[in-house]
Prior knowledge:
This protein has about 475 residues and is of the alpha+beta class.
Amino acid sequence: MNELRVTAAGRTQSFAPGQTVRIGRSPVNTIVVPDPIVSREHALVSWQADGWILDDLGKGRTFVDGLRVGSVPVTVPIDVHLASPLGPALRIEITGQAATTAPTQPEAVPASSRPAEPGEAEQEQAAHPGPPGRASAIQRSRLWRGSSSAAHASPPHDPPGVQRPAQEAPGGDFATAVHILLPVRSWLKDPGWKQGARLLAIAYGLLPSIFVVVLSSTTNVSAPGWAYSLAIAPLWAVVFWVLIKPGHITRLVALLAVIVAVAVVALLPLMTIPWEKALDRTADMHNPLPWIYGVGVAEEVTKALPILIAALMLRSIWKVTLDVKVWMFLGTIAGLAFGVRESVLYTTADLMTSSQGQAGDTIQLILTFALRVFVDGFQHAVWAGISAFFIGMGVNYRRRRIPLILFGIALPAVLHGLNDWSTLLVSHWLWIGMEALSLLLFIGYTMSAATIERQVRDTPLFRGESMIMDRAVLADDQAGR
């Protein structure tokens, strides 16, 4: 009786009264839920004077029956979801009669009865706790005073038949309605503000207006390109992080991302532009080869070189090997940095040479600016991500290091060159097709990166022959004979 049972991921554990059950992602918890959306210390089930109580610890979100809760008495079996209504699920119940019998509903208080004494509502709630997910009277009074967050209290519905005295609020009915409909005090105390997604939504909602105010009086033609390109690049970085799933961004990965981005921006005027000027043979629209070796190879080598140097230095000097998905993500960062710098160059040139007074030219200028700002960094990141994937493979499996790295640079260089060449043709559908092909390859590698790496690791063609394995195979052959 009163023994608590918690079922998570098909495993059931039992706890006696007096024990404390900690739930979260950290290995030190009693119930470990290894999901990245779950907080390290997410929830707590503890034995109190009136039974087992489930408490949300305020570092994540806890849902019971689809409702976000803060504190819930465990009187009947409840299904708990962590972080979201569809998040990791747990079943919490009490063994014995209390786990299967619904709580007795209190009888309605007759109208002729005496008025409720102070504190009687709290005592009634403690004696007859409502269904899971409902806040107590104490919680509702704290919510009114602003001493608790609305995000961690369920809707204040009382069990059927219970009559409670109306809560008097300063200012009368109007103040009560304003507090309910605009709970600013509770919003300010809500830990959800710590989530980066909400802050990003506010920042990106205000950025365009801020740019208009700040840049309206500038005479620097490159300022709009820098502003909008740098604003869009982080959004693409988040998209690539979701697609590639490289894991948590550690300090090492963040430092490498900064170094790679700075190196790419520095190499563009020092290596890319001189290379392209020296091998500029792009006047002939019928020959795509100059676009491949004069543009594609030049720009892909620029983006790949910092990735290659960083990977080799980590492996040879510090003996650190990163997952190929991490290098793929860092490749997209290199591509975004290159794309931002290139879009600034192009948008500056377009704004300086644009003609005024003709609607067609104005529309073309707007479309070109949007293309450079939204697409340049994205395209370069896609090609650089493919290249960095093979660089990571080559560094981790050195037997075929040079062929893997060369293939990794050559493939996006060809795609890059053909993409740029196709923009000069009368029909731009080939250009759209090259972009689609690049995207399909990139997304394909994000989905099968782990499988490809495992096959490379298990194939002697890439990892080299093993004398021990050869002897074992030879011994098996002789035993079979």
